[in-house]
Amino acid sequence: MDTETEGKAAAVEEMREWCVALPKVELHAHLNGSVRNSTLLELAKHLGDKGVIVFEDVKDVIMKSDRSLPECFKLFDLFHILTTDHDTVTRIAKEVVEDFAAENVVYLEIRTTPKNNEAKGMTKRSYMDAVIKGLKAVEDVDVELFGSNFRTNETLSSKLLDGVTKKKKIYVRLLLSIDRRETTSAALDTVNLAVEMMDQGVIGIDLSGNPVVGECICNVLCRETYLPALQHAKNMGIPVTIHCGEVANRKEIQAVLDFCPQRLGHVCCLNDVEWKKLKSLMIPVEICLTSNVMTGGAPSLELHHFADLYNAKHPLSLCTDDSGLFSTSLSNEYYLVATTFGLSKFELFQLAQDAVQFVFADDVVKKSLKEVFKHAEKRLLMWDELAAPS
Ligand code: 5GP
What we know:
Keywords: Hydrolase, Metal-binding, Nucleotide metabolism, Zinc. The protein is an alpha/beta fold. It has one domain: TIM Barrel, CATH 3.20.20. It is built from 17 helices and nine strands. Strands 1, 2, 3, 4, 5, 6, 7, 8 and 9 form a nine-stranded parallel beta sheet that branches. The chain starts with a helix and ends with a helix. Residues 148-163 and 219-223 have low confidence and may be disordered. The structure holds guanosine-5'-monophosphate.
């Protein structure tokens, strides 16, 4: 390697390290989309041995890295076969939190679709109890699920701070997802479950699922619509986030903007009028760069709508969507923004810090998170000087 190539490789390495060290807020992560490949393979092997699936076929599907939107949803059906029992749900919830904490995510909202599965004796409630059991089982990291006693000086990667490894802390909150395949009454059950579990870390509702199936949200006259459930959440004071514009469904995008949820996911296929409306409403957007490019919602990283929203100072937050499925991490999403759009370390820090404003958790948590960033600021913004040889 010549000196120039070596210098470039070192700069890439240094920037990646910085993005990992940056405290981050993750607002759009689907539980079953964030499972480690190694865990999926292990589960698939187990079911293969039992003759439930053909392991060799499934293995190739899990390891494939480029996926279209329809392929992703086929894969979710497979994941749901692999992760149906309570113990597995507990295991994946634990591992997902560990993986985000390893990336210095200090606040994580995990969303998941509560599932009924009679064959396994699973109800939506017992599914969520299994998720919470997983969060409580995390040992390497302190997980704050209900309280606000977040001690800021222990939240960062302390190893980078002073050479001593201390236990990290992470706030975890849960959003219950309504799958677009569900009926009105099933969607209402999910919102009622969220109400029931508000004191157990559940703080919001999400509408997701394959955007080319299910009733359009705008079809209020149709009995199979999600609007009653979303409205019920709103009436109960539960914040709502909706997947919006993953495909160019004009009526639906319009209806989602009219509903005016607290946050929106993706917003890929908006036309000029819809962009204008989104910007005037100032609804914070959960930006999922890798996911959007891989599933065709954005033509490329360079042409991703992040740049337009960022330049317009629209509220936004970088997210992973499905870190397992798309082989990404939140640190990598920040790195991609730096390298694609040329944001400086200062701008990346601001971007990460600004996301605190859009969390669904209460003001006490927000205040603690602000302290985390304040504590990290000097070290991260003086990184280059600190790293320079004396
Ligand atoms: P789970 O809710 O089972 O924990 O996570 C997987 C589910 O999240 C999928 O079945 C799907 O309903 C939803 N999901 C994950 N990624 C996406 C995405 O990019 N777009 C949409 N619309 N839904 C998604």
